[in-house]
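Lab meeting, item 3. Inverse folding demo.
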């Protein structure tokens, strides 16, 4: 199995891939420079599975993932999710007094998740954005300047650096939700079969819809009522611009239940009568279920 993820080695995505239990031990990893590139590897036949971050408990949704899931909806489907605890470390090339640090480099998400630490402990340091946490550590390892990176502590060993401080995230409960993707027409994954999972396991279905036909006050509420009236629990809703003109949006929702359940099927069909576009991005065991099915 070829598994794509946001690379290179030393990113939180690689940490999540190793800890999630999704990928078989003999998998070949395919590190990618960006989330969109990782998701597109399935459509190009370059990967069999993809693990990408979709939401962080502090910073919210990962926009690149949401937009790419829509763009690639005909090629990929969500077949699992994993909640990964995020523990950030301050990493330098050599042991260094934090007061000497000129700049801190990282991906925008860790920079935001460690904002309070950076303001209180390193107020004079410049903040620089890198394509990934791993790229940040790599840049620090190659510079003679007093630079530091925010990344998983494991990245320090990969690039022969040292950890100055650990667990510097603002909130100790910082968690990133990852989704596990497969080709839409691939029936090999246990997540895609009707007999997968144990009795009583919780399922989740992700849906995106847009262009509500009745554009009037309460139109979105009426669309969501199709679920509540059937006692289907809505666990998440997110809006993203349609990227056509100002004021037009698509809505991402996560609901409890499996797509094949009669009540959920009926709700989705009713939603199709209210929205111009309705896409099922995946139906999968929730993070509370046993992941060892793929």
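The presenter then showed the designed sequence:
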């Amino acid at each position: 199995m070829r598994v794509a993820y946001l690379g290179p080695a030393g990113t939180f995505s690689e940490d999540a891939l190793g800890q999630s239990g999704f990928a078989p031990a003999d998998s070949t990893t395919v590190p990618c420079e960006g989330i969109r590139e990782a998701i597109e590897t399935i459509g190009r036949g370059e990967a069999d599975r993809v693990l990408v971050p979709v939401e962080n408990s502090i910073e919210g949704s990962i926009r690149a993932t949401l937009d790419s899931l829509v763009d690639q909806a005909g090629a990929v489907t969500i077949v699992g999710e994993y909640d990964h605890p995020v523990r950030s470390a301050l990493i330098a090339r050599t042991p260094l007094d934090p007061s000497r640090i000129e700049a801190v480099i990282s991906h925008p998400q860790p920079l935001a998740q460690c904002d309070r630490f950076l303001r209180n402990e390193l107020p004079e340091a410049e903040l620089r954005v890198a394509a990934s946490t791993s790229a940040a550590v790599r840049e620090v390892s190659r510079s003679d300047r007093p630079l530091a990176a925010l990344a998983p502590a494991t990245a320090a060993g990969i690039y022969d650096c040292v950890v100055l401080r650990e667990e510097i995230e603002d909130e100790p409960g910082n968690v990133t939700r990852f989704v596990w993707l497969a080709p839409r027409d691939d029936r090999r994954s246990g997540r895609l079969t009707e007999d997968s999972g144990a009795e009583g396991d919780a399922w989740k279905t992700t849906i995106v819809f847009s262009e509500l036909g009745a554009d009037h006050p309460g139109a979105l509420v009426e669309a969501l009522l199709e679920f509540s009236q059937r006692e289907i629990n809505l666990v998440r809703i997110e809006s993203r611009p349609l990227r056509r003109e100002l004021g037009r949006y698509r809505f991402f929702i996560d609901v409890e239940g499996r797509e094949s359940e009669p009540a959920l099927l009926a709700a989705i069909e009713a939603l199709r009568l209210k929205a111009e576009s309705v896409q099922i991005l995946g139906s999968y065991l929730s993070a509370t279920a046993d992941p060892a099915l793929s």
